[in-house]
């Protein structure tokens, strides 16, 4: 049961007392429910709800009664037109009570009982009035019943309020006991607070000194403290001061060594720190370690580069401008963050993220913290200048510009790095000039045998120089060997091969050229054999046997074999025809397929066969006519011939014509001599035996004529002449037959 105060109970009693007083209370204007004083609890809210409901019911009853007759139905038995007590309760007012000299212990209850006693009498008197209608009378009776019911509810509510009062009294006693306990605890804690306040004042002085950079003060620890927590707290503060002193000196030392003196590898050694101090110490140590590792790795890598060792790389992670430096050299250390935040931020920016140029900005710091800030900023500024100068030079080297060198002032390992990079640039310049010279001579000008001369190089640079020279020398030897073999091949010497040891694609080229030489040798031998057999020895039908050839060589071999086969067929066809011609057979012709000049030769031979056939037929005809049939004057008619065949034809025709002229001249002379005319002589041109015959006939005619002239008168001369004539005719016949035969 929730606690109920006396004010709450009094207010509830006042509300119950004022029920049905007809004060024209409007619940819609005063609010939907009553508000009792005291703490808000569930029981209180329930009581307020019940009271509000009771007030509403009573008001409705009073309003119904007023509707019947406002004058005859008073609100209360005691007075007419008295203001309702509900408005005072709900609006916070108080209803005046008539107090007697000796008030009742419970005045509200007494007045309520009086009202209840008077109300039935007045109600009966009113109801007995003749002016009251019967229906109104019934309504009044109903209202009276409702009022009686409200009375019973009031009694129950009153009993409930008494129980609440008892519970509230019990809870008040318990609350009083708790208050006394709290007072004792409060006094105890006040004493502890005074001790803590004193300790806090001392600690405040220490914290103020720390904020000003003074780390020399400590908290005084008494032999006996009021609270053990105070001793523990003071010891923690003093331990913190010791750690801060160690931290500041260690951080300043590391920053001075790394940032100013260029001594890398230092670490802040602070034992027993936790939280932000441990994080700050770790950050400073990580910064120094990162910077040491990065710079030493840069020095190691750049030294290796200067010595020609290109197998090493900077593996430390980095970002920003340090990432750009890592791409040329790798990264450097973050700046120290701002003390607690700035020193760590600066350290993170410079050592990890590679953001150069940052400064720790800590306003109002003094003492050791100011010294630490100055040292961190000096370290960051020096590193920024040095690394950017190195980055500029290495970036220029990466872009092929070997004219720049590191000019920044450096100390310690940074100075060694500077000298290493500058030495690397000089060696790279010399190496680039020599390699460019070799590349230009070998690759562009075609001058073999050149060598790169680079002094004072070691490691990979020396190996690279030797490799370039070895490459140039090997390339020179290989190209010259290949040129020698290919020149020999071009000159027809297939006995030479590439014998120099080579590897890779050059070895493939060597094998290809040597294989080419072997195949060319085989091909040349076979082609020469076929050419010799066909062209020199006259042995037809030979074929070139070249194994494992492909491409053009295979096509060439097949073409040679096709040529030899075609030539064999064609020559054998020509040979058959010419052999037939030699045997006097003019009926055969060349039927083999041919092209080009062989086709022309084929057509020429076939034409020759045709013309020889015509020529032989014509000559045979002339010879038969002249020599056998004795038909003089015939001519060989062979059309479309020239050269020797034309000359032979002309000679045959000339021979036939001459023979015809000579024989006819001989016949004329003999006919004239037969007729006794010896005045004519043979004048036709003749040579050889025909000329001798001509001379003999002419001499014979001359002799006969002379003889006839001397013996003209004598018979003997006539007889002699007859006999001579007979002899002459016989001789002439004999002479004529002899040359023709």
UniProtKB/TrEMBL annotation:
Residues 23-43, 75-121 are annotated as: Disordered. This is HAMP domain-containing protein. GO terms for molecular function: phosphorelay sensor kinase activity. Residues 194-249, 289-341, 381-433, 473-525, 565-617, 657-709 form the HAMP domain. Pfam families: HAMP, HAMP_2. InterPro entries: HAMP_dom, HisK_dim/P_dom, HisK_dim/P_sf. One of its GO terms (cellular component) is membrane. Keywords: Coiled coil, Phosphoprotein, Two-component regulatory system. Gene3D superfamilies: 1.10.287.130, 1.20.120.1530. GO terms for biological process: cellular hyperosmotic response. Residues 44-71, 147-202 form a coiled coil. It comes from Hymenoscyphus albidus. SMART domains: HAMP (SM00304).
